[in-house]
Amino acid sequence: LAVLVVPLLALMALCQSGESEVKTVDPARTFQAAKAEARFAVMVPADLPDGWQVTNASLNRADGGALTLRVSYLTRANRFIQLVQSDVATETLIVDELGGGKIQGTSDVGGVAWQRYAGRRAGETALVLLDPKATVIVVGDASLGDLRRLAGSLR
């Protein structure tokens, strides 16, 4: 019995000791496709901190040609942030992405006032930038500093 149990326990210890790998993606093609198709200026993050990982990148088209770009990040602190850029009507986008919450204030990002909302889930915060042609949302359970860092990196 010990001959079977000892290797089994060793195998279980090896499986549990390794940290789970985060599945990452390269968002470059998604950003390129968005730039080619969007009727608004697509912004791309630049110089994000080391250790941030892109976990998802998608481009969705709605009826009428509206486009929504979503790119999800995992920070060094294992916190989630999602970047959303869209020319869907602002009111509709805020309901869809944030559950339609009310503005909680503003946050200065590089001299630009972003509106601050509560996110859809408990512990989430969202920064929203309104533009006549598109809405940009940075939302997640990461710190406000990390949300501002992503928002401030957009070019």
Structure description:
- With 155 residues, the chain is α+β, with helices and mostly antiparallel strands.
- Helices cover 29% and strands 32% of the residues.
- The chain is built from 4 helices and 7 strands; from the N terminus they run H-H-E-E-E-H-E-E-E-E-H.
- It has a 7-stranded antiparallel β-sheet, sandwiched between helices.
- A hairpin with a 5-residue loop joins strand 2 and strand 3 (80-86).
- The longest helix is centred in the N-terminal third of the chain and has 16 residues, at 2-17.
- The protein is globular, with a radius of gyration of 19 Å.
Please give the structural blueprint:
Layout: H1 2-17, H2 28-37, E1 53-61, E2 67-74, E3 80-86, H3 90-98, E4 103-109, E5 112-118, E6 125-130, E7 135-140, H4 144-153
Antiparallel strand pairs: 1-2, 2-3, 3-7, 4-5, 5-6, 6-7
Q: What is the helix content? A: 25-40%
Q: Specify the biggest β-sheet.
A: 7 strands, antiparallel
Mean pLDDT: 91
Number of strands: 7
Counting helices, strands and paired strands, the structural category is alpha+beta
Work out the helix count: 4
Strand content: 25-35%
